[in-house]
Each structure stands twice: as structure tokens, then as C-alpha cells.
Design goal:
Blueprint: H1 2-5, E1 6-11, E2 14-19, H2 30-44, E3 51-56, H3 79-90, H4 92-95, E4 100-104, E5 107-109, H5 110-117, E6 121-125, E7 129-131, H6 145-153, H7 155-164, E8 168-169, H8 170-176, E9 181-183, H9 188-200, H10 204-216, H11 219-237, H12 240-251
Parallel strand pairs: 2-3, 3-4, 4-6, 5-7, 6-9
Antiparallel strand pairs: 1-2, 7-8
Helix pairs in contact: 3-11, 5-6, 6-7, 6-11
Length: about 270
Amino acid sequence: MSEDRVRLSYEGPIAIITNDNTDKHNAFDDAMDARLFEILAELRDNPDVRVAIWRAEGRSFSSGRDVSQIGRQQLEMSHHQLMTRGHRGIQQIFDLDIPILVAHHGWTIGGSFQRTLLCDVRIAAEGSRFMLPELTHGVIADTGGVACLYQMCGHGVVSDMVLTGRPLQAEEALRYGVISRIVPRDELDATVREMAEKIAVIPPLSVKLARRVIRSLHEPQIRTSMHEELLMQTVINKSEDFAEFKNARTEERSPAFPGVWVKPPRAGREG
């Protein structure tokens, strides 16, 4: 079933990844995550592919994570292990020799937005919007997107988006370099396809090395940020605040957060 909701197809040297969970605005669950990671592994090992397009059916690119699963899954592994698996899966983007062009339309939210920020080029249809609402679900953004946005937008915009969850409109995203183009919705697929075709005829070694130069400028910071996110999200998952958040939501009442936070000891300090 996940193969139907995240599809991979080929048109000559162009690979096309398609989100197709339209009943939920292409929200991702564990099975869809696993399928996406399988696709990235296949692209990494396919020498005939020159470029990939990531697009979506329906009204939105992706509404992010299926929020009904947050904090409620019955997992066979720890939260830390689950996050580690997710990080390793999506960091395969860094291992690809080919660029990924993302075609945004409608909403792109949460983890899905962060994942597209790890890709090479983002093009948006008119009216596209982007958002990081993780704090409203009691967790933090944890897929490297904060580091990417910090590099693009700076401290103030990133803090606004993360702390208030406010949407980023397409025009503002273009101004900050989050996306590179805005096109009419009915021209989105054709525009991205034209861009992919231009890349597909360039010598592949040149594309690979050009991407390596660009990624060397920002990838180390993203990897460091993702490691920090992994640690902080693990702390949140075990916290009394998060437990109270989940209980209050289940019981449909206002939360009373204990606000417990244990500061780590300073390096070299005794006692």
C-alpha cells in the first residue's frame, strides 16, 4: 500500500517521486517514510538516473506528519531509535550523486517541509505555503530544516516560524531563497520537468562535483543540527511536560505543565 502512496517512476534519465496520499493531504506515516527511504536508496544505486523530481498529487505537497500518531504509536523500538532510523533514511539525500528538484503546491508542512529543504532546488506554485507547527504538538522540528532555514532566512524569521508556527507565503519564501521560482499551478510540473531535462544532458560528473561544492558549504551544519535535534527530542519525549501535554489533549482539558528541566553540568565544574 505504501508503494501506491509514495511512487517512483522513470522517464528516461529522470526519476519521479510522487506523493499520493491525497485523502490526508499527503500526510506521511511510518509506512510512507519507509517507502521514501527505499526510493532514495534505489536512486543512490541507479547509475542511469541523472536527476530526480519530487512532486505530489492532490491539493497539497504534504501536510507533514499524520498528527494522530504523535505520541500515541505503540513502537517496538525506543523513540531515540525511531528518530535515528528516520535521520539515517533521509540523510541518504546527502549521499546521492544526482540533484532532487521539488515541485511544491498548496501546503508543505512540518517534517515534509524540512525534508524538501534538504533537497537541491524548490519551485513553488502560486499560493504555496510552508509551516513548521511542531511546537503546537509538544515536540520540536527534528529533520534538519531549522538549520537550513537559518542559513536562508536568519535568526529572526526562523524563530518566528518555529515558536509561533506562522505560515511562510510563497512570495516571502522566494525573497529569502527558500524557493527559487514561483509559477502558475498549471505550469508547475512542466516547469520542473524542463529544469530536469536541462540537468539530465549535462555530464554527470560535472553535476556531481558541482553539488559537492555547494553541499560542502552547508551540509556540516545541518548534520550537527540534526544530531542536536535527536538529543533534544529524546529529552522532550521522556519529559513530564510532554506527558502532561498528551494527557491533557486526551482528556480535553488545559494542561498544567510542571516545567521540569535539569540543566546539564558545565564542563570542568565539580559538584
